[in-house]
Amino acid sequence: MSLPQFKLLRPRTLDEAVSLMAKHNDRVTAHAVRIVAGGTDLIPSMRQKLFEPGYVLDLRHIAELNGIRQQGSEVQIGALTSLTTIEHSDLLRRRYPVLTEAAATVASPLLRNMGTIGGNICLDTRCLWYNQSLTWRKGCGFCIKKDGNLCHVAPGGTKCWAAFSGDTPPALLCLNAEIEIASASGLRRMPLRDFYTNDGIAYRNLQPSEIVTRVFLPESSADYRGVYRKLRVRGSIDYPLAGVAVVMKRSNGNIADARVAITAVNPAPFLVKGASELLAGKAIDEILAEAVGNLAAKTAKPLTTSALTPEYRREMIRVFTKRAILQAASEQN
Ligand SMILES: Cc1cc2nc3c(=O)[nH]c(=O)nc-3n(C[C@H](O)[C@H](O)[C@H](O)COP(=O)(O)OP(=O)(O)OC[C@H]3O[C@@H](n4cnc5c(N)ncnc54)[C@H](O)[C@@H]3O)c2cc1C
Ligand code: SF4
User: Is the CB of 162 within 6 Å of ligand 2?
Assistant: First the structure.
């Protein structure tokens, strides 16, 4: 499958990047420019003609967007930082282990060398009926997400249920991470939990001319024990079909604070509502871990967007949550 024709833009600074985005991305031709970071998701999607932008803006020469640094009380991660760098960062492994664990499960070592944290956060949603070649999609009459007017997964509805399938966002949600977004009008910052919309098409709160530039991890989330569990078809290289992140801090044998987040079972990754309250102040046992697993399974609303059945993916959210909580509790100092 060949790539569609496009012009490549290669800014050297963030200022140059935002002005190129503003110049080429006017209101009439929204998404005339697509950002490429590692390209591990965008390039296959362009080959499948899911995106046919006039311009591709390559972030890779913007040095200021690369690297992990302690800045005051928080840790900053540049959007261009590779998943391999995150996986092997001593600072992150020591203070935010759930993130290094989640990053280490993405795809394969080669794809983690190329793939970036910004690309992982901004990843397009996925569906059996969408991530296919143009010929395949044409044969099925397309669908609402691209070029068609019906949803094969939930016929009769008008919403797209394609699943958000990134591995690091649930870990980042558990860590109360924030992101920085740049545009020609300046910088804005938002909690990652406000970035996702739970709509399979307009899945993120990002204007066409905006660029995600940094991720911030607060000191208040440091030193939590973390566990990430993921279901995939091929253990060596695959997107999650269900994923659970858990962070936990204990005090005097009880849970002082804990958070649980899930991915790949809804159009957005979610913090599981009520999980922190259920766990706070308690000692972990099988019954409590099971109750949180049930809560996570209720939050999961998978549909037939992947090769595995929705029932199985939902059940694995329950099982993984229970196991992750028991493991996080057993590994506390
Ligand atoms: C075989 C295979 C297996 C994979 N398995 C997994 C997996 O297990 N888990 C997983 O999470 N991912 C998986 N991926 C997807 C991908 O490799 C990762 O998600 C990776 O982190 C994407 O980062 P990237 O830099 O390559 O993104 P790109 O492909 O460059 O971009 C991805 C999307 O984000 C946008 N984007 C990128 N950076 C920014 C930015 N800074 N600001 C705004 N928008 C931006 C792009 O326009 C594009 O829409 C897999 C991919 C393949 C091909
Ligand atoms: S959920 Fe429906 S609209 Fe969305 S990609 Fe799948 S088939 Fe298309």
Answer: yes
- Assessment of whether the complete model's pTM goes beyond 0.90: yes
Do residues 230 and 240 touch, judged by C-beta distance below 8 A?
yes
Q: Which tens digits make up the pLDDT trace of 141-195?
A: 999 999 999 999 999 899 999 999 999 999 999 999 999 999 999 999 999 999 9
Nearest alpha carbon to residue 229 among 328, 321, 309, 92: 321
Please state the φ and ψ torsions of residue 181, each to the nearest 5 degrees: -125, 135
State the residue for tokens 């990134």: 166
Ligand nearest to the CA of 162: 2
40 lines ligand 1 (CB under 6 A): yes
- For ligand 2, the distance from its centroid to the CA atom of residue 242, given in whole angstroms, is 18
The residue whose CB lies within 8 Å of the most ligand 1 atoms, and thus the one to mutate among 36, 41, 56, is 41
Residue written as token pair 């399974």 = 297
**CA–CA dist 85, 96 (Å, integer):** 14
